[in-house]
Write a structure and sequence with these properties.
The protein has 391 residues and is an alpha/beta fold. Helix content is 32%, strand content 25%. The longest helix has 30 residues. It is globular, with a radius of gyration of 21 Å. The two termini are 39 Å apart.
Length: 391
C-alpha cells in the first residue's frame, strides 16, 4: 500500500536532477513525492563543476547561498598542455565574467550539493522523500499515473518525472535505444588538500589536455579537499568486455605526460573506474503525464562539465511549464520537452566535439594550442550559448 494519496507529482530518482525538480515544483506550490531506489540518498566522493547557467537556477530555488558555504569559486579555468606542461589558455572568472553572467562558476563536492538539496527538500512540507523504491514501470492511468516498484507496490500520482539516470528504466517507454560506450574511462576522487604539494593554481580549475587523455584538477569543500579526474582512451576497448581501461593502461598512457601530471596521478584512487557512456539525443521525452529529466533524458559525456547543470536547467524549465499550464500536466510536459530537447542535444553533441579538441594529437594538437592561445582570458564568444542561458 502506497503511503501517498495520488495528488503528488512523482519523481523517480533522488539524484541531483530528481531533488532539483522536486524543489522547483514545490517552490511553485506543487506536492511532490520522490521515489529513490537506494536505501539512502547519496552521491559519490568526487567533485562537480557548476556553471552560471545552473547556478542561476539554484539561486531561484533558494539554495545558492547554502551551496556557497561549501563551494569554491575558482579565479580561472586554465587549460594546460599535458605533454609540455605549458599553459595554453584560460577563462577569467573575475569581474568581466561576473558582469556578463551575474551568477558564479563554482566547484564543489557532489555530496555537499546533494546534502544542500536534500536539506531544502526536507524543509519543504510539500515534498515527501521515500527511499528503497525500485521503480520498474510507469503507466498513464485515467487522469493520473502509476509507478510500479520491483516489490509489486504501486504509487499513484498526478504525473511522473523520471530522473533515474543513464540506465533509466522509464526511458524504455519512450525509446528502445541503448547507452553508447566511448572507449574512454575516468579514475577520480577527492583527497585532503594537504596531500597536494603547493603549486600555483590550487584555487583554479585546471584541465590538462593531451593525446586521447585529459586530467582535471580543482579544489572542493571550501578548499579542504582537492578533486582530480584522470581520463584516457583505451586501446583495449572491446564491446561487452570488462577488461579495458585498467590501472596498467592508465599508468602506461600517462607515462608520456609532464612531471606535474605524473606526480598528481599518483594521488588518484585506483579502486574504481567510470567508463564514459552517453546516448544519442532523442526528441521525445514525454508520453502523456510521464516525462524524462537529467541523464534519463540526455546523458552526455562529461567533457563540458554540464550533465548535472543541464539536469538543473531541466528542473527550472519543467516547474515553469507546470506553473504556466495549470492542471494540464501532459501539456506542461510536452512544452517542457519542446523547450529543452534541442538545447540539451546541442550540449550532448558539443561535448563530443570538445572531447576531440582536448584529445587531439600531432598537427591537431599544435593547431588547438595556437588557436586557443589567441583568445583573451575574458573572451566569452564561444561560451555565451552555454553559460549565458536564461531560459
Ligand atoms: C567523471 C564525471 C564527471 C562529471 N562532472 C560533471 C561536472 O563537473 N558538472 C556537471 O554538471 N556534470 C558532471 N557530470 C555529469 C553528472 O554527474 C550527471 O549528469 C548527473 O549526476 C546526472 O544527474 P541525474 O540526477 O540526472 O542522474 P543520477 O545522478 O544518475 O541519479 C539517478 C538517481 O536515480 C536513482 N534510480 C535509478 N534507477 C532507479 C529506479 N529504478 N527507481 C528509483 N530510483 C532509481 C539512482 O539511485 C540515483 O539516485 C560528470 C559525470 C562524470 C561521469
Amino acid at each position: 500500500m502506497s503511503p501517498i494519496d495520488g495528488r503528488s507529482i512523482l519523481i523517480v530518482g533522488g539524484g541531483i536532477g530528481g531533488l532539483s525538480v522536486a524543489l522547483a515544483l514545490a517552490r511553485r506550490g506543487r506536492r511532490v513525492t520522490v521515489l529513490e531506489r537506494a536505501a539512502q540518498f547519496g552521491e559519490i566522493g568526487a567533485g562537480l563543476q557548476i556553471a552560471p547557467n545552473a547556478s542561476r537556477v539554484l539561486d531561484r530555488l533558494g539554495v545558492l547561498e547554502a551551496i556557497g558555504r561549501h563551494a569554491v569559486f575558482p579565479s580561472r579555468l586554465v587549460f594546460m598542455d599535458a605533454l609540455s606542461g605549458e599553459r595554453i589558455s584560460a577563462i577569467d572568472c573575475g569581474a568581466a565574467f561576473t558582469s556578463r553572467y551575474v551568477f558564479p562558476y563554482l566547484v564543489m563536492h557532489r555530496s555537499d550539493l546533494l546534502d544542500v538539496l536534500l536539506a531544502a527538500c526536507r524543509a519543504e512540507a510539500r515534498i515527501t522523500l521515500l527511499t528503497a523504491q525500485d521503480v520498474r514501470r510507469a503507466e498513464n492511468v485515467g487522469d493520473g499515473v502509476e509507478a510500479v516498484c520491483a516489490d509489486g507496490s504501486v504509487h499513484r500520482g498526478l504525473a511522473l518525472v523520471a530522473a533515474d539516470g543513464l540506465h533509466s528504466t522509464i526511458r524504455r517507454m519512450l525509446s528502445d535505444d541503448a547507452p553508447v560506450a566511448a572507449p574512454y574511462v575516468a579514475y577520480r576522487g577527492a583527497i585532503p588538500m594537504e596531500e597536494m604539494s603547493a603549486h600555483a593554481g590550487l584555487d583554479n580549475v585546471v584541465m590538462w589536455v593531451g593525446p586521447q587523455m585529459h586530467f582535471v584538477q580543482y579544489p572542493v569543500r571550501r578548499g579542504e579537499l582537492y578533486n582530480q579526474v584522470a581520463v584516457f582512451g583505451s586501446r583495449r576497448y572491446r564491446e561487452g568486455s570488462e577488461d579495458w581501461g585498467t590501472v596498467e593502461e592508465l599508468e602506461a598512457h600517462y607515462a608520456q605526460t609532464c612531471d606535474h601530471v605524473r606526480r598528481a596521478l599518483t594521488k588518484i584512487r585506483r579502486d574504481r573506474r567510470w567508463p564514459m557512456v552517453d546516448r544519442q539525443p532523442i526528441a521525445t521525452w514525454t508520453q502523456g503525464r510521464v516525462t524524462l529529466l537529467g541523464d534519463a533524458a540526455h546523458p552526455m559525456l562529461q567533457y563540458l562539465a554540464q550533465g548535472a547543470c543541464q539536469a538543473i536547467e531541466d528542473a527550472g524549465c519543467l516547474a515553469d511549464q507546470v506553473a504556466a499550464q495549470g492542471e494540464d500536466l501532459a501539456a506542461a510536459f510536452q512544452a517542457y520537452q519542446e523547450a529543452r530537447y534541442l538545447r540539451t542535444a546541442r550540449v550532448q553533441l558539443t561535448a563530443h566535439f570538445f572531447g576531440e579538441i582536448c584529445h587531439a594529437e600531432g598537427v591537431g594538437r599544435t593547431l588547438r594550442n595556437a588557436w586557443a592561445a589567441q583568445r583573451a582570458e575574458a573572451d566569452f564568444t564561444y561560451l555565451d550559448w552555454l553559460w549565458g542561458w536564461q531560459g
